[in-house]
Amino acid sequence: MKYRTISLLLVAIAVVGCNTSKKMNQNNYSLDSSTLSDGNNIENSKAELTEKDLKYLKQCLILAEDALMAGDEPFGSILVNQRDEVIATARNRVNEINVLAHPEIELAKWAAENLSEEERKNTTMYTSGEHCPMCATAHGWVKIGGLVYLHSSHQLGEWLKEFGVKDAPINFIPVEDLIKDADIKGPAKGDLIEDIKQLHKRYHQRK
To answer: Does the pTM exceed 0.85?
Structure first.
């Protein structure tokens, strides 16, 4: 790992944060325009979700439910190559391994070990929830070309408040502020977003 030496006399760090918390139905789904916290809305710059996107997000939703059934938080992710083939899948395994065992981290590591840089650039990660900063930076370092997420961090934060769940120990930042040169789309809305919300509700009702 390369480390940079930064002069403390020259740098002032300003954090513009979002106080937000962190994949089955056949109805029509489209882009939700109320994603980011503090009223910052950049959804108009994103392309709308396609039927293909929704198909893969439903697979993420199934993986998220698998995680829930295993006693973990409902997060699931897949990698899809340029031939529209699902080449890797992962679900949350925090309760089995440790707090870093997010599915996006596992897929980023898999991609780094099994795909060339060119193949990674032509791969899209579909995931049930917008990346946390840890997963976003892993995605960026591995240079995976695309990201499509089902729900945003802001949406999850609002749901957790509704469920009476305490805040996460970190601040969540929009993935666009962390990942460069990636095609990013999300979130969805309609029945699909309600399905993932209900999975999170079921998880927290158990605790």
So the answer is: no
The 10s digit of each residue's pLDDT in 26-62 is 333 333 333 333 333 334 346 799 999 999 999 999 9
Sheet hosting strand 183-185, strand order edge to edge? 86-91, 76-80, 124-129, 146-151, 183-185
Phi/psi of residue 144, each to 5°?
-75, 135
Ordered structural domains, the chain, with CATH: 51-169+187-205 (3.40.140.10)
Cα–Cα distance for residue pair 119/56, rounded to 1 Å: 19
Is residue 192 exposed (0-12), middle (13-18) or buried (19+ Cβ within 10 Å)?
Answer: buried
- In angstroms, the CA 205 to CA 131 distance is 23
The 3-state DSSP class for residue 169 equals coil
CB atoms within 10 A of CB 71: 12
